[in-house]
Specification:
With 243 residues, the protein is mainly beta. Helices cover 11% and strands 55% of the residues. The chain has two helices and 18 strands. The protein starts with a helix and ends with a strand.
């Protein structure tokens, strides 16, 4: 009777093992994510990866967020065995403060787990007067921050045109423009640029009485609080006349 009972138990456990791998199975790479500290008003995003570790097609039937502050949508609703997809979650922190914990629910045809819960957290920091000031500040942007003139014969003057743009929300004031040597000269069409406006800066490099490989800089000072000094690096190889 003992050997009959043993065979019976083996058959039962074998059948259970086969049953565990049959059908679709939803498998998240991660079930929670922490955005950390974010300034109130910012919208942040994260993509949760979902795969099908079963042996039949996984059908995602619905994705629902725990509140109206999130939006989630899978890249595709049907996953064959071994396939994966991403579910993007957007979180708008406007009108919120402090620690936040939100959920996204994924419904599928996984018999063992028909509803998968994903969680994300964030700590909303109130905007300060400094943050508001920075948002409304001017923003200097240069079309080039470095340039290599290559090989240039001694005695020639080479030129470089750089566009200066204000990407901020208030007037950009250009202050002093300094060069690292007397071999360069800078001409600027405008010293004040309104929001969205651009100006042209012409840089001239005089190679007279110079030779070899040189590196020089042009530094632009402005009232941009984030980047008050912007530098354009110039590289050149000055060669003499062939004899």
């Amino acid at each position: 009777m003992k050997w009959i009972s043993t065979i019976f138990l083996i058959i039962i456990f074998s059948t259970m093992g086969l049953a565990q791998v049959v059908g679709p199975k939803i498998s998240p790479i991660e079930t929670n994510y922490n955005f950390g500290d974010i300034i109130e008003g910012a919208t942040v995003s994260h993509e949760f990866m979902i795969s099908n570790s079963g042996d039949d097609a996984l059908q995602i039937t619905n994705v629902r967020a725990s509140c109206g502050c999130t939006a989630a949508k899978p890249e595709k609703n049907k996953l064959n065995p071994g396939e994966a997809t991403f579910i993007k979650v957007d979180f708008n922190s406007s009108g919120r403060k402090g620690l936040q914990k939100k959920y996204v629910y994924i419904f599928s045809n996984d018999v063992d787990q028909p509803r998968l819960r994903l969680e994300f957290r964030a700590n909303i920091i109130p905007r300060s007067e400094k943050d508001v000031a920075l948002e409304n500040a001017p923003r200097i942007v240069l079309s080039k921050t470095q340039h290599n003139f290559g090989d240039v014969k001694e005695g020639n003057i080479v030129e470089l045109d750089v566009t200066v743009k204000n990407n901020g929300l208030s007037n950009l004031e250009i202050g002093d423009i300094k060069t690292s040597c007397g071999c360069t000269a800078v001409l600027l069409t405008k010293k004040t640029l309104g929001p969205g406006m651009s100006g042209d800066m012409k840089i001239e490099f005089d190679t007279s009485n110079r030779n070899g490989t040189l590196t020089r800089t042009v530094t632009i000072n402005s009232n941009d609080p984030v980047n008050p000094k912007m530098t354009v690096t110039l590289m050149i190889n000055i060669v003499g006349e062939e004899t």
